[in-house]
Amino acid sequence: MKRPEPKSSAVRRILLVDDHPITRQGLVAMIGLEPDLQVCGEAESAGAALALLGRTKPDLILVDLSLPGRSGLDLIKDLAATHPGIPALVLSMHDEGLYAERSIRAGARGYLMKSAGGQAVMEAIRHVLSGKIYVSAAVGTRILESLGTRQQPGNGTPMAGLSDREFEVFQLIGEGVGTREIAGRLNLSVKTVEAHRAHLKEKLRVKDATGLVREAVRWVESQQGV
Q: What is the rounded distance in angstroms from the CA atom of residue 213 to the CA atom of residue 178?
């Protein structure tokens, strides 16, 4: 009697969330070469991604942190609260030293820098789809050390002590965005943004608004490789 052939494993569906069309096109082409993976949808913002969830039914969301309007961190928190069964893997240009632990705390199941290359992206996707958390060895060691010493995760720098919202405000300041526009983008009051600016000056030990802007611009440029 002829034995039945084993069934092929189901194709896993991936939703891409990135505001750069070229990045999404590259990921679509790369993922399309994998027989067990397919891109089920693309979104350029957190709101668009949430709107696509019901229709696309992804098995994993590949998300950038820098998105127009609400950030990737906000999207990850929303997913953890409303769709805990859909894992999020961060693929970002931002330094993992500050963003990886912050992303994992928000609910992401992995973090990978865009400079890692295609093979690493595929490895990370499959790792997260298997139910595991994917971070670099250095980040994994730091997280374990912080748990062992009962310290807040972070790399010991003033930047690591910022809250997620303070972090977002700081980055927008560095991008040249004014207080009122920051308030609009993050759905906050102007008074709240001003309070965040005051906390940033205190935590980063800068004396005035000019010093805060200078530090923020320097930070953004360092993240962009300028």
A: 10
Helix (H) or strand (E) holding 66: none
Spatial neighbors of 45 by CB under 8 A, at least 6 apart, are: 17, 19, 67, 68, 69, 70
Nearest Cα to Cα of residue 162 among 209, 210, 207, 196: 196
Q: Which residues of 137-172 are buried (b: 16+ CB within 10 A; e: fewer)?
A: eebeebbeebeeeeeebbeeeebeebebbbbbbbbb
Domains annotated for the chain, with CATH where assigned, are 12-146 (3.40.50.2300), 158-223 (1.10.10.10)
Report pLDDT digits (tens) over 80-139.
Answer: 999 999 999 999 988 787 788 889 989 999 999 988 889 999 999 999 999 999 988 777
pLDDT of residue 9: 61
- For tokens 């440029």, the residue is 221
